[in-house]
Hints:
Number of strands: 7
Distance between the termini: 26 Å
CATH architecture: 3-Layer(aba) Sandwich
Shape: globular
Strand content: 25-35%
CATH topology: Aminopeptidase
CATH class: Alpha Beta
Largest sheet: 7 strands, mixed
Radius of gyration: 15 Å
Order of helices and strands: EHHEEEHEHEE
CATH superfamily: Gcn5-related N-acetyltransferase (GNAT)
Helix content: 25-40%
Structural class: alpha+beta
Amino acid sequence: MEIRQAQKQQLIEVLYIIRECSNQLVEKGVNFWSNSHADMEEISSDIEQGYVYVMVNNHVSIATVTLKPHATNQKVMTISRLAVFPAFQRKGLASMLISFGIDLAQKGNFTAMEGYSPLYDSNLAALLEKRGFERKGTLSPPSEKIGSIIFEKLL
């Protein structure tokens, strides 16, 4: 398996992986990713800027993550859209993508990483905490299913 920057022609693969993970969350009652046209444009832009990465197995993209400077603090790297195609989950691939992001952030002299987890996705929250991220708050009241927990890891 190899992690590399996504190319323009991989946009559909990235969207497909995210959609499949989104469907899993919806089945659990968590509406986090909408996969709207705006998402497609934003992801396409992020690919063009070199922020989107894919994990490839036998020439097939099986996971994706977006790693880019925070919108308001260029010393903080944001990790988002971490998604592993369902058939490849529970094999440590998400943890590998997080490690890749941490390494990239350290090499880029970022001082911290910030990530988000849906309020009701305890698996991702536990994974981020296991990797040394600390809870810093939420983006919306806990009564809203689309809210997020903000996580931070100092580097």
